[in-house]
User: What shape does this take?
Amino acid sequence: MESISRFLTDDHHRCDDLYARSETAAAESDWDAAGDAFARFRAALLRHFRMEEETLFPAFEAASGQAFGPTAVMRLEHEQMRNLLNGMARALVDRDRQAYLGIAETLLVLMQQHNFKEERVLYPMSDGVLGGDTEALLERMQGVETV
Assistant: This one.
């Protein structure tokens, strides 16, 4: 059986790959490719947030009793990243390479720090407290649709 850590870490890597494609296209001012790649990246990242916020976090909080612990920090960082995604979308519409790449760099740093905390702290804790519910949680997370 797959672990929560492995499933969500693999999803981080998928999002990272999509991010890199969008950044590369924008750096080359290939706006059609950048727009397409960004749309796929944004959809994947927002789906990842939903998997966590709608499934993992509530289950973790219920099992651990930590409603104001690591999940609260992760939710705040998700909101910060959503705001950066909105800025990137505006820069794409404006075809503003400098703005897009600047915001993208800020997002990359935040994603790296965020993913490190999840992969090193939250996911292993989740595997520990949710072990018996892992299969059902993974099924629910896999069923989350892209908005």
Notes: The chain has one domain: 4-142.
